[in-house]
Each structure stands twice: as structure tokens, then as C-alpha cells.
UniProtKB/TrEMBL annotation:
Species the sequence originates in: Aureliella helgolandensis
Domain YbhG-like alpha-helical hairpin: 97-213
Membership in a protein family: Belongs to the membrane fusion protein (MFP) (TC 8.A.1) family.
Annotated CusB-like beta-barrel domain residues: 265-334
NCBIfam families, A to Z: RND_mfp
Lineage: Bacteria, Pseudomonadati, Planctomycetota, Planctomycetia, Pirellulales
Coiled coil (UniProt feature): 88-156
Record protein name field: Putative efflux pump membrane fusion protein
GO cellular component labels: cell envelope; membrane
Length: 427
């Protein structure tokens, strides 16, 4: 069973050790660079098995047009950084804008009609209906009196039948007119029927949906980025006609990348999801990067008989430019080799540059406060919980600089402010 190191950082009060220093020596020591150190440990670890992989975007989206139309604007070019929701291209919407204006005007008309019904009859309308009702009543009563007078004259022979018939018709007509005026007054006083108000509300709702449909059609004329990323390809230009479903641009996400590395069945069975692996790039010798095994595809390539291992790795985006690019070659050290007792140092102890990889070992003086550093070239192995397996002139217990090592030179003197002491716990 392998042992895993756990690191506890604490401040160490440095004693003088009984030594007496002159004022000049004390001043010189005060000018020494301040560093923190950690002890090298040795523990059984799985050695590295190197495989070659390829960097792929975490996501790739082929952005197309939902509708057919003429391209009015293209806002991006290949290589541009984009944010989620950012417009990529715009189709012409002149006709739709006119349709939208007409639909919104009609919607306002329906809203006002509904408001008129909900508010009911005005006082002036009710007064007019009452006046018409009273006028009809007066006409009816007058016609009734005329008919009665003619009937009295008829009995004395002073009226003829034709006059009686005309008066009777006028009386009946005025009765109907009065009844109609009374009905109109009652309707005006009650206001619109609930069914009429419901119909007006339905017309408003229907027109609102028509407006939303037109707005949705307008929105579909603008193609947007589905997530933060970069334009890897552009497929249209201003003035071009694009069909529904036609490609506009390809967007890739590089905030996090996925490295696909094929390996043998023997190695694939030793890996598990969440394992930390060290990743190197020939173009970035000064970078120490680690990733995490995300998936092990359980289907082998039919020709090579290898299994794809997918490794997730956080990318650095500086000034809209990603550090890791799609298609880059990566060297991955899988922790699947034979177990060996090897030195491990904290990740921060490594000094990487174009020429070599090294650590600075502090040879402590008797005071326990200052020391001299020596540069030790190392070769890197697997990564394990913040530690890196190294091969070089190192032994367990050696103190390596973990903070302040960026500008050190061999044989320089340093002042140690903190020590990091390692503990191991059985897994």
C-alpha cells in the first residue's frame, strides 16, 4: 500500500544557538534573501508511464441561423474571444420591424377598447339614454291622448275611420319606441356584458402573442455565442444569403481543456477518475501543469487497441489569449508504472526555465537560521497531491526552497523564515 504525504506549514522560531555575532555580521545576515523551505521525503510511489495526447476544446459549438435571410453584419473574425450571449452576426429585419410596429399599434387599439368596456358607460351616455327614454315616453303619452280624443269625436260623428286608424298606429309606434328607449337606457346603465369584456380581453391576449411571435422572429435573426470562448472558424460574410440552419461560426471553449491520450489496457485499468497527472508541453518548458483524469473511455480503438484517457486541465487566459491551444501536443505522465521509493518535493520547490529544471537545496549553518543554497538539476515524474516526484542528487530530509526561489543563484546565502515539515499517513 502506498504512502501519501501530507504537509503542515508552521513558523519555526530560530534560536541563536549560543553563537555570538558581530554587528557587521548581523547586518549582513539581515540582508540575506528570505526563504521558506520544506524537507524532501521519500515514499513508495508508482513511477510514471509517459503517453502522448492532444489538446481539445472542452466544448465546440457550430452556431447556425434559425431562419433564412440576408446577412447585414458580421461582428467577429476567426480567433476573436467572445462572451456568452455576444452577437456574432445579424440578418436584415426591415420587413419584420414594420410588421412589429403594425402589430403593436393594433395591440394598443385592442387594449383601449378593452379599457373602454371595463370602465363602463360614461355619465353623459347614461344622461342621453334617459333623455331619449323620457322623450319617447312623452311622445307615447301624447299619441295615446290623440287617439282617445279622436275616438270621442268618432262617437259624435266628427271624425272619420281613417283618422282613427292613423292615430292608433302612431300610438302603437310610440309605445314600441318608448320600450326601445327604456331597453337602451337599461343597457347603458348596466354597461357591457361580461362576455363582451371577455372577448375584448381575448383579442388583447391574442395580439400580444402575435407581437411576441414577431419579436421572436426578429431575435432569431441575430446569432449569438452560446458560451465564453473563441471563434475557431467563420463561414459567412456581409451581404451573403444564408438558409435556415446555415453555418455562421464555430465557437470553442478553452477556459478548461480536455486532453485525449491513448494508452494500453494495462495502464487504463490502473487509472481511476480523479487521479492527478502531470502534463508537459514542448512549447511551454517553463510551466509545471497538472490535470485530473476525467474519464477513461471503455472502448478500445479497433486498430491500435488503445483506450482513450480524457484529462481535464485548467487553462490560463491572458489578454484574451489562451495559454493552451486546441491541437497542441501534450506529454502526460500516468501514475501506472512499477512502485519505487523515490524523492518527492512540493510543486513550489521546482524552478523551471528554457534550459533545465531544478530545485535549490539549503545547507544550513550551525545557527539554524541561515544557510547556503546549491542548485540541483532534477527530472520530473508523477504528480501526487501537490507533490512532484523527482530524480536527482537529493536525499530524504534535504531542505528545498519553496518560497523565494525565483531569483536565487547557486552558492548564495539565505535566511530561513519558515520550515515545512512533512508527515505521512497510510492510505
Amino acid at each position: 500500500m502506498l504512502l501519501r504525504p501530507y504537509w503542515l506549514v508552521f513558523s519555526v522560531l530560530l534560536a541563536w544557538g549560543g553563537l555570538v555575532c558581530s554587528p557587521n555580521e548581523l547586518k549582513a545576515q539581515a540582508d540575506f534573501p528570505l526563504v521558506e523551505v520544506a524537507a524532501v521525503i521519500e515514499t513508495p510511489v508508482d513511477t510514471a508511464y509517459r503517453v502522448i495526447g492532444t489538446v481539445n476544446p472542452l466544448r465546440t459549438s457550430m452556431v447556425g441561423s434559425a431562419v433564412a435571410g440576408r446577412v447585414l453584419e458580421v461582428y467577429v473574425n476567426q480567433g476573436d474571444a467572445v462572451e456568452a450571449g455576444q452577437p456574432l452576426a445579424q440578418l436584415r429585419t426591415d420587413t419584420l420591424e414594420l410588421e412589429l410596429a403594425a402589430a403593436e399599434a393594433e395591440l394598443e387599439l385592442y387594449r383601449q377598447q378593452l379599457a373602454e368596456m371595463v370602465n363602463g358607460s360614461r355619465v353623459e351616455d347614461i344622461a342621453e339614454a334617459k333623455a331619449r327614454s323620457l322623450g319617447a315616453k312623452a311622445a307615447m303619452e301624447n299619441a295615446a291622448r290623440q287617439l282617445q280624443r279622436l275616438e270621442e269625436l268618432m262617437s259624435s260623428g266628427a271624425a272619420i275611420d281613417a283618422d282613427i286608424e292613423d292615430a292608433r298606429e302612431r300610438s302603437i309606434f310610440t309605445q314600441y319606441t318608448h320600450a326601445a328607449a327604456e331597453a337602451t337606457l337599461a343597457r347603458v346603465e348596466k354597461g357591457p356584458r361580461s362576455e363582451q369584456i371577455a372577448q375584448a380581453a381575448a383579442r388583447v391576449e391574442l395580439q400580444q402573442q402575435n407581437v411576441l411571435v414577431i419579436k421572436d422572429r426578429i431575435v432569431k435573426h441575430t446569432m449569438i455565442a452560446p458560451f465564453d470562448g473563441f471563434i475557431s472558424a467563420k463561414f459567412t460574410e456581409i451581404g451573403a444569403w444564408i438558409e435556415s440552419g446555415g453555418q455562421v461560426a464555430e465557437v470553442i471553449e478553452l477556459k478548461e481543456v480536455e486532453i485525449q491520450a491513448p494508452t494500453t489496457a494495462e495502464n487504463a485499468t490502473k487509472l481511476k477518475r480523479g487521479d492527478t497527472v502531470r502534463v508537459e508541453f514542448p512549447e511551454l518548458p517553463h510551466k509545471l501543469l497538472t490535470g485530473v483524469v476525467h474519464r477513461i473511455v471503455p472502448v478500445a480503438d479497433s486498430r491500435a487497441r488503445t483506450f482513450p484517457v480524457l484529462i481535464r486541465l485548467q487553462n490560463e487566459i491572458i489578454d484574451d489569449s489562451p495559454l493552451l491551444l486546441s491541437g497542441m501536443m501534450a506529454r502526460i505522465d500516468l501514475p501506472t508504472g512499477k512502485p519505487q521509493v523515490l524523492p518527492l518535493v512540493p510543486k513550489d520547490a521546482l524552478v523551471l526555465n528554457q534550459l533545465d529544471r531544478s530545485v535549490f537545496v539549503v545547507e544550513m549553518e550551525r545557527s539554524g537560521e541561515t544557510g547556503t543554497v546549491r542548485k540541483v538539476p532534477v527530472e520530473l515524474g508523477i504528480a501526487m497531491e501537490g507533490l512532484i516526484q523527482v530524480t536527482g542528487d537529493l536525499s530524504a530530509g534535504d531542505l528545498v526552497v519553496v518560497l523565494g526561489n525565483e531569483r536565487l543563484i547557486p552558492n548564495s546565502q539565505v535566511r530561513v523564515t519558515n520550515k515545512v515539515i512533512s508527515q505521512t499517513a497510510k492510505n
